[in-house]
Design goal:
- The protein is an alpha/beta fold and 238 residues long.
- The chain has 3 domains: 48 residues; 137 residues, Alpha-Beta Barrel (TIM Barrel); 48 residues, no CATH class.
- It is built from 8 helices and 7 strands; from the N terminus they run ααβαβαβαβαααβββ.
- The strands form 2 sheets. The protein has a 4-stranded parallel sheet with strand order 1-2-3-4, sandwiched between helices. A 3-stranded antiparallel sheet has the order 5-6-7, with no helix packed on it.
- β3, α5 and β4 form a beta-alpha-beta unit.
- α1 crosses α2, α1 packs parallel to α3 and α5 crosses α6.
- The chain starts with a helix and ends in a 19-residue tail after the last strand.
- The mean pLDDT is 95.
Length: 238
Amino acid sequence: NMAGYRSGFIAAENYRRKWDKWLADKKGDQPERNLRDETLAEVLRGNILVQNHCYRADEMVQMLDLAREFGFQIRSFHHGVEAYKIADRLAEAGTAASIWADWWGFKEEAMDGIPENAALMFQAGARPVIHSDSPEGIQRLNQEAAKAMYAGRRAGIDVSRADAVKWFTSNAAWVLGIDSIVGTLEAGKMADLVLWSGDPFSVYSRAMQVYNDGYLIYDRSDPTKQVVTDFGLGQVKR
C-alpha cells in the first residue's frame, strides 16, 4: 500500500510542477488533465484538508511519514483507536484524531481501544475530537465527551470541563477548516450555541434553547420553536 501511495504522490508532484509552470506564464501547450493527480496536487498545495480513516498506531505513523516526505499535513485521523500510543507524534505533526469516547473491540484493528484515548492525547498536547459514526451518538456528543473526560480523570489526568468542551466544538471546527467562523463564542463568528438546563455533561440536562447563526431555532418552552427533525419523524408525541 505505501508503495502505491508514494507512487501516487510522486506522480502528483510532477503534475503539480507542470501545471504551476504553465499557469505562471501560459507558454506552450496546456498540460493534460488527470483528475487523480489533480486531487493529490491540491493536497500538496495545501488546498485540500486530508481526513485519513485509520485505526492502528503503526498505520497512522506510516501515513505521518508519508505526509512528511511529501510536505503536506494530515488534518485528522478518523477513528484512531490507538492514537494514544502515538500521541507525541500527533502533537508534533499538528494532526488531530477524531475518535470515539469508548468504542473498541468490534473488529480486529479496534482491539486496543481504551476510554483514556482522548485524555492521553490531550495530556501529550495533541488535538482530540470526539466523533460518533452513529446517528444516535451524534445527538449526544456532550455526553460522549463527558465519558472521555472522566475516564482521563480516573487515570489521573487533569482534564477540565472547558478542555473537554473543545473536543466536540473548537477542535472539530479546526479539523474541518471552519474554525474562523464556528467552534467558539467570539465576536464575528456565527452564533451557533445551545443553552442547557444544567451541566451540559449531565444526562439529566435538557437543551432549552438552540441558536443557529444568532437566530433562535428551538425553544423547549415555545411549541412554535420546536421544528420536527429527521430524528423526530415517526415518533408519537406523549
